[in-house]
């Protein structure tokens, strides 16, 4: 067990039986009161924000988290099967750890996964991916007002909005955090 004064931003703590990531930690010394640490933390599994005041001598459990790059192999039900790039071990990772970015993952991509004692706790997809347009309606000539968008289906099956000049078979870069079109890839 560690003391609250040992906590750093980015640490993963076991707090009330849940894993939480410390986003911000401020040491406060108000006037004639005792000093304390004001922490803003996020639940790793649910994403819920938690604020808490730690006494300076309060004991906390800092978890040892190992983060590494893995290669996404394929989808298997509610899990993604990934392979360690160094040891070639395969792991089943729940899809919910990736959030909305899961629908943009393509086989062979590298993803970052954090483990806490052999349990996957976080999954992070690349911030942008290159995907091929598998279906989109052709643009109508003269229908080119500013910022006009149309729907297009990418190779992972997700429908996104793209500019009118994008055609079927072209590759586009998509932001996995928002699902928005970034640019056409040559």
UniProtKB/TrEMBL annotation:
Amino-acid biosynthesis keyword on record: no
Keywords, comma-separated and alphabetical: Cytoplasm, Elongation factor, Protein biosynthesis
InterPro entries in alphabetical order: Elong-fact-P_C (IPR015365), NA-bd_OB-fold (IPR012340), Rib_uL2_dom2 (IPR014722), Transl_elong_fac_P/YeiP (IPR020599), Transl_elong_KOW-like (IPR013185), Transl_elong_P/YeiP_cen (IPR001059), Transl_elong_P/YeiP_CS (IPR013852), Transl_elongation_fac_P (IPR011768)
Gene3D superfamilies, per database record: 2.30.30.30, Nucleic acid-binding proteins (2.40.50.140)
PANTHER family: ELONGATION FACTOR P, ELONGATION FACTOR P (EF-P) FAMILY PROTEIN
HAMAP family per record: EF_P
Protein purpose: Involved in peptide bond synthesis. Stimulates efficient translation and peptide-bond synthesis on native or reconstituted 70S ribosomes in vitro. Probably functions indirectly by altering the affinity of the ribosome for aminoacyl-tRNA, thus increasing their reactivity as acceptors for peptidyl transferase.
Record-given protein name: Elongation factor P
């Amino acid at each position: 067990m560690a003391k609250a004064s040992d906590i750093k931003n980015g640490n993963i703590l076991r707090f009330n039986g849940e894993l939480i990531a410390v986003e911000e930690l401020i040491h406060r010394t108000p006037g004639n009161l005792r000093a304390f640490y004001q922490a803003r933390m996020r639940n790793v599994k649910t994403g819920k924000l938690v604020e808490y005041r730690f006494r300076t001598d309060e004991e906390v459990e800092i978890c040892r988290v190992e983060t590494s790059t893995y290669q996404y192999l394929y989808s298997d039900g509610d899990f993604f099967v990934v392979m360690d790039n160094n040891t070639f071990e395969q792991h089943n990772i729940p899809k919910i750890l990736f959030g909305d970015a899961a629908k943009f993952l393509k086989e062979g991509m590298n993803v970052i996964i954090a483990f806490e004692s052999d349990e996957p706790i976080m999954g992070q997809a690349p911030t942008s991916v290159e995907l091929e347009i598998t279906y989109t309606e052709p643009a109508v000539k003269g229908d080119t007002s500013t910022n006009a968008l149309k729907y297009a289906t990418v190779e992972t099956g997700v429908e996104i909005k793209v500019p009118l000049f994008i055609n079927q078979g072209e590759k586009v870069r998509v932001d996995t955090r928002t699902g928005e079109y970034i640019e056409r890839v040559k």
